[in-house]
Amino acid sequence: MGELIMAILFFIMGIVYVLGAGKFPKMEGMIISSGTFPRAVAILLLIYSGILIIKNIKNLKVEKNLPKIKKETIIAMLGFIVFYFIFDYVGYIISSILLLVLLSMLLQDKKYKLLDTVILPISFVLALYFIFKLLKVYLPLGSLFN
Amino acid sequence: MEASFIDSLLVFTQPMAIMMLMFGGLVGTLFSAIPGLTGTLALALLLPFTYAFPADMAFILIIGMLGGTVYGGSLTAISINIPGSPSSVCTTFDGYPMFKRGDGDKAIGLATFSSLVGGMFSAILLVIAAPQLSQLALKFGPPEYFTLCLFGLTAVVTLGGDHVKAMISGLFGLLLGTMGIDLFGTTRYNFGSTLLTIGVPLIPVVVGLFAISMVFKSVQENDANNEIDISAAKNFKRLKFPSWKEIKELTPVYLRSSIIGSFIGFLPGAGGNVAAFVSYNVEKKLSKNPEEFGKGSMAGLAASETANNATVGGSLIPTITLGIPGDQFTAIMLGAFIIHGLPVGPLLFRENQDLMYIIFITTFLTNLTFLFYGYFGAKHIIKLASLRKSILVPLIALFALTGVYASENSSVVIGVGVVFGILAYFFNRYDIPAAPAILGLTLCTLLENSLVQSLMMSSGDYLIFFKRPFSIFFIVLSAIFIFTSFVDIKSLLTPKMKENN
Questions:
Q1: Mean pLDDT of B158-169
Q2: In the 3-class helix/strand/coil scheme, how is B156-216 assigned residue by residue?
Q3: The predicted structure's pLDDT at residue A24
Q4: Which of residues 188-227 of B touch A (CB under 8 A)?
Q5: B303-330 pLDDT per residue, tens
Q6: What is residue B492's predicted lDDT score, i.e. its pLDDT?
Q7: Among the listed ranges A64-78, B147-161, B263-277, B363-377, which one has the minimum average pLDDT value?
């Protein structure tokens, strides 16, 4: 089912690009314009994603033994998304430490090790922050603290 | 030309160049040796940081990494029977039995020496073949560039098992590449975003596809109770190189495996693992004692390790002369050329002689770096295989995100990296290869511009591509690859045909 959704998304992308290609200005006396190349590529994408859609519909009843996406994987993805949204506010150090602590916890079996969960994430982030500072690359401390 | 070569050679007298070389070799060897990490991941993580250095230093780092990315896997393959990288799978067949029977020092010594032989052979081949191929490419005009790019893209589609999915990935990359201002000055597909006006930023896309996605994959496949046991490797102290007599006996194996490895490396789509398997099977067939293969045969181990390292120089030949990468690593390397403002395709070799000499020299030196790390550090590198994922994976995430941010000094690109990381996780889950997407993105501008220029030359006549010999040659090659992908359509009919029967 997941593969079918991916194929449909590619198909939609193809449609968006074909429609978009029609809106670009035509060049006077030119056989080729801004829309020609993306339109051709998008049509090919429509054909190939169409093939994948048909393949998946035909094989829908055939169970694929894909393991379920774990709760931990989804939490990790959400962690990265939250990292992106809080980065400008709380800055590099806090957002990175939070993400690293989260990832470390997701990779352990409930008996959390102090070293892996707290000490190393904080040390890694601070070390990288100061190495970058030495190289004159200033990682942001966040608008909350300015 | 000679002066230019000497200038390039003198670059290596700078401490910075040696530091880059040694650092690249270390990172490549470590990422290859530790199961779960790969050379491609190492390059994706370091790519944003190379941006801060001049092109010559950046490519000493990247090419310096290349030898180690193939060699390192052999250390864990031999000592704990877990290949650190796919190209070392074959090495476990004879390397591990040798290690188990107490010949660990000899096995790792033989693997190191064989990797050196394969690497050096392919470096010599690179120096001989690349300028010849580049001379040929001098005759190319826009129609040849267009058909060559087309061939490169269709050929790399074979990187993935499923041609339809690989083709979708390549087309997806091409469409991403059309974002931003084009040759006519039109702003295309920026969807209202200022960032996308100048096109899709390459670094966050590469880091997302190859590094951030790896974090999600590691969490998904994590088994906290299943840590790698390296206790069996504890007795290993230092490697022991083969004797002159053994080297003499293995010379035909070295020669055959080097040729096979270099040739397979040259082919788009096939990498170190294919080279090792082909070479291993050839030696097994030719051997007077085929029954020893799989039980600790020196010839088997030498064949695998020589062939996989021989792919290094082989894969660089089409990458630097034509812009067609031999594998995933070189596909990302094309991105590194673009980041440094260099052209991809035949112009790269023609217009950047100094850099090409530096790449040649580094291809030789990368073999010496892994020799150094193998000799002095093999014991410690093997120990790192047991590093807990709860330490390793967060560190990779940190490097990936820091690199992405630093590439543009903007948090917006972090969002791009995260989106592509999540997307690549699903690519991976449904066996859609990411490498064609990167190639599509990097080759898109050259492909479209050469199409426009060709049609301007011919006043709009598409037949121009069928009127020039090299252009026809590339079209025929592309057609062969496209045909093989369409053959896959047969599988659509198969279930129905079975039902009817």
A1: 78
A2: HHHHCCCHHHHHHHHHHHHHHHCCEECCCCCEECCCCCCHHHHCCCHHHHHHHHHHHHHHH
A3: 87
A4: 188-189, 212, 215-216, 218-220, 222, 224-225
A5: 999 999 999 999 999 999 988 887 888 8
A6: 47
A7: B147-161
Contact B178 A3 (CB under 8 A): no
Q: Are B100 and B374 in contact (CB under 8 A)?
A: no
Q: Quick check: A73 pLDDT over 90? A: yes
What do you get for the CA distance between the two ends of chain B, in Å? 68
Phi, psi of B179 (to 5 degrees): -70, 145
Residue-level pLDDT at B21? 96
In this structure, how many other beta carbons lie within 10 angstroms of the beta carbon of residue B180? Answer: 18
Residue B305 to residue B111: CA distance in whole angstroms = 6
For chain A, first and last CA: distance in Å?
48
* Separation CA B435–CA B170 (nearest Å): 8
pLDDT, position B498: 43
**Whole-model pTM?**
0.87
Split at pLDDT 50, 70, 90, the class of B260 is very high
Residue A131, both tokens: 């190495």
In this predicted structure, what is the pLDDT of residue B489? 47
Structure tokens at B198: 């100048």
Rg (CA), chain B: 23
Q: What is the pLDDT of residue B212?
A: 95
Question: For the stretch B17-45, what's the b/e string if a residue is b when 16 or more beta carbons lie within 10 angstroms of its beta carbon?
Answer: beebbbbbbbbbbbbbbbbbbbbbbbbbb
**How distant is the Cα of A82 from the closest Cα of chain B, in angstroms?**
10
B390 interfaces chain A, CB cutoff of 8 Å: yes
Residue B80, judged by CB atoms within 10 A of its CB (0-12, 13-18, 19+), counts as buried
3-state SS, residue B411: coil
Set of chain B residues whose Cβ sits within 8 Å of the Cβ of A132: 402, 406
Instruction: Report the C-alpha dihedral over residues A109, A114, A118, A123, rounded to 10 degrees.
Output: -120
Instruction: Pull the structure tokens for residue B490.
Output: 């047969």
